[in-house]
Structures are given as structure tokens and as C-alpha cells.
Design a protein that fits this description.
Layout: E1 2-3, H1 14-26, H2 36-56, E2 63-66, H3 69-83, E3 89-92, H4 98-108, E4 113-116, H5 127-133, E5 138-142, H6 156-165, E6 169-173, E7 190-194, E8 205-209, H7 235-273, E9 278-279, E10 290-294, H8 300-309, E11 312-313, E12 319-321, E13 324-326, H9 329-334, H10 338-341, E14 344-348, H11 355-372
Parallel strand pairs: 1-11, 3-4, 3-5, 5-6, 6-7
Antiparallel strand pairs: 2-8, 7-8, 9-10, 10-14, 12-13
Helix pairs in contact: 1-7, 2-7, 3-4, 7-11
Length: 376
């Protein structure tokens, strides 16, 4: 398979994979034990935390390791609700990942008032609407930094300024932006990261929390991670995450240029093959690796399965239950019809993709579109 679904997950860097086996032998001890082996594991955790904090420009004790962004998002959202029970309103964009939407819906069933913010046709949050909807009862504002379906980038600095002026907490899911788009740490009170989106293993992530903010933990136990995430730390994967961030940091300019070149080549080639194809949010600032396109006439599921048969992996933003696809909530929020939303296909590039693979992708799309379009 040629893999163009890197927004869903990425391949672990080979050099990180090689080190994981070594680290599994070197850092097997519990980092909470006081003996020498345990303290070696503790040092590995804290050195990793220190490096990631330095990369982001935040204090070390504001980095909390978790298993993934879903855990982080739930910890932040539900932890804030328990930490500030006097506030019962939440402002949220309608284009959030489900790991944010669903815990918020959970709170709505327990009496919280959920208010959705307006987004324009390019997927950008309306700052005037945000300012109007904040009240003294607003617990926090949640706006995803880079949308996982369309790649649209939100202006965290401007959003953070509004939130700070109105004295309300600001949380952002930064899963798709971490290492690829700068995160203005001063503008955001909380943000979440998942390692497997940047070529680290699945099962490791973290969130940043400004240390003066009250947060009730989701998990209770031994009080690890400054009391915010109990459970024995996954030392090996924490090391793997830190090493992956180091690789991105040292190669960032090259990686970003490569992703932009691959995306540009794909868009230009696609428009040549199918002139009336639509690039979602084409006029907005987007991540260098995520492109969602709406093909004329042909539904996404048919196109994805046809590409899969040809050995190419891509995805859509549509949820599928019992074999019946439903349109992306993100694209519906942009103002797309259900019919159009069901024709949206996401192509997401990784740093290990090549221009030759993009050439093959374009050839397969041309062939598939030519064959399928005669039936529509």
C-alpha cells in the first residue's frame, strides 16, 4: 500500500523503533521506585519532559504525560468542570474532534449549557461571535488549532487575546498542528498532543496545563504526573515521544518544505486531471499535509474503495455506522450540503511519502475517475 492517511496515524520513525527495544531493557524499572534502577527510569522521564517543555517554551511542570490526546481532552474538559463548578457554560467550535465534542456532550447531559461558535465557509471561527457569547458563567472556550479533516489553521493568538481580555480559559486540541505549525503557548491555557500523529508510537501523548489553573484529575491512584494522571508512567514511550520531537525539531524546515512540495504537486496535478474538483478551504491557511477534495458526482466511499483496490490508502471525514456513511459534521458546519459532504475525500501526506508516490496517486485518480464518472 501507498499510504496517504497520515492525519489518521503515522509510521513510527525507524530510528525510534530501533531504540524502543533497547530502552525497554534499559528503563524497565518503575520510575516511582527509590532504588537505582527506578531512579534511572525517573531521570529518563524527566529528561524527556524537560526537552518537550523546552521545545514548546513552557515550564517543565506544565507538561503532563498521558496515553493519547483523547485521554488528555477528557481530562481537561471534565477536570475543569469539576474544578470550577460555579461556571456552567462552555463555548466550543462545531468543527472539533469527537474526543472533544463527546465529553462536552457528556457535560451537557449534566446541566452544562453548550454554545457553538460560528465558522465561515472556509472554516475560520468568527471572533466577534466568540466575544459576544462569552459570559461570566463561561467555563472555557475550546477551538481546535488545525482541523483534522480539512487542515484549516485557527489563529490561536487572536482567540487567546479575546479569551484573556474576557477572563475565560482557552483550550485547544493541537494534535494536528504539533511540530508542523507553531503553537503560541502564551495564548493557550491548555492544549493536547498525541504522539502517533508525528511518527511516535500509539499509546503516548501529553497535555500542557498552565500550573496555576485548578484541574481535577480523571484518574485517581498513586498521584503521578503532579497528581493529574495516576498510573505508572510509560517510560519507554515517553522516551520515544521525546526522541520523535527531537527528530522533528532538528529536521523541521526540511520536513515542512517536503510536505508543502508534496501537497502542492498533488493539488496542481489534480486540477489538471479534474478541472472542476473542489479543494475544501482552498483560500484559508491550512496545514502543509492535509488536503480534502470534493470530487464531481462520485461519492467518497466509492472513490476510497477504488483507490484501496489499487493499493492506495486515503480516508474521508464521513462517519460510517452499519455500512451507511453519514456526512462530516465539519463540512456541514462550513455550509456544505449533505450530498457534497459525502463526496469529500481526505489526502494527508507524511514525511516519508515521495514525489513518485504522488505521481502514482495522480495516475490512479485519473484512471478511476475516468471509469467511474461514466456511471454518474
Amino acid at each position: 500500500m501507498i499510504y496517504f492517511d497520515n492525519a489518521a496515524t503515522t509510521k513510527v520513525f525507524p530510528e525510534v523503533l530501533d531504540k524502543i527495544k533497547i530502552w525497554s531493557q534499559d528503563f524497565y524499572a518503575n520510575p516511582n521506585s527509590i532504588h537505582s534502577d527506578g531512579q534511572r527510569s525517573r531521570m529518563a522521564v524527566e529528561e524527556s519532559r524537560r526537552y518537550i517543555a523546552s521545545f514548546l517554551g513552557v515550564p517543565e511542570d506544565e507538561i503532563i504525560f498521558t496515553s493519547c490526546a483523547t485521554e488528555s481532552n477528557n481530562t481537561i474538559i471534565r477536570g475543569l468542570a469539576e474544578g470550577y463548578p460555579e461556571k456552567d457554560e462552555i463555548l466550543i467550535s462545531p468543527i472539533e474532534h469527537k474526543s472533544v465534542l463527546n465529553p462536552v456532550r457528556y457535560l451537557s447531559k449534566r446541566g452544562y449549557k453548550i454554545r457553538f461558535l460560528k465558522v465561515d465557509s472556509q472554516g475560520i471561527v468568527d471572533l466577534d461571535d466568540l466575544n459576544k457569547k462569552i459570559t461570566p458563567k463561561t467555563l472555557f472556550v475550546s477551538i481546535i488549532h488545525v482541523n483534522n479533516e480539512t487542515g484549516v489553521v485557527q489563529d490561536l493568538e487572536s482567540i487567546g487575546k479575546v479569551c484573556k481580555e474576557r477572563d475565560v480559559l482557552f483550550f485547544s486540541d493541537t494534535v494536528q498542528s504539533f511540530c508542523k505549525i507553531d503553537i503560541n503557548s502564551d495564548s493557550v491555557d491548555f492544549f493536547s498532543v498525541s504522539g502517533h500523529k508525528i511518527n511516535a508510537p500509539k499509546g503516548i501523548g501529553f497535555f500542557r496545563r498552565k500550573k496555576d489553573i485548578q484541574l481535577t484529575p480523571l484518574l485517581f491512584g498513586g498521584g503521578q504526573e503532579f497528581g493529574l494522571r495516576s498510573g505508572t508512567e510509560n517510560v519507554v514511550y515517553i522516551k520515544a515521544l521525546s526522541e520523535t520531537v527531537r527528530i522533528w525539531n532538528e529536521n523541521r524546515a526540511y520536513f515542512i518544505k517536503k510536505l508543502k512540495d508534496l501537497s502542492g504537486k498533488f493539488i496542481n496535478g489534480l486540477k489538471t486531471i479534474i478541472p472542476d474538483v473542489e479543494i475544501v478551504s482552498e483560500n484559508a491557511e491550512r496545514s502543509p499535509n492535509i488536503i480534502t477534495v470534493i470530487f464531481p458526482k462520485i461519492d467518497a466511499q466509492t472513490f476510497i474503495m477504488a483507490l484501496n483496490t489499487e493499493g492506495i490508502a486515503v480516508s474521508s471525514g464521513s462517519a460510517c455506522s452499519s455500512g451507511t456513511p453519514s456526512p462530516s459534521h465539519v463540512l456541514l458546519s462550513y455550509g456544505y450540503s449533505e450530498e457534497k459532504a459525502l463526496r469529500a475525500v481526505r489526502f494527508s501526506f507524511g514525511v516519508d511519502n515521495t514525489e513518485e508516490e504522488v505521481d502514482i496517486l495522480l495516475e490512479k485518480i485519473k484512471d478511476i475517475f475516468g471509469k467511474l464518472s461514466v456511471f454518474y
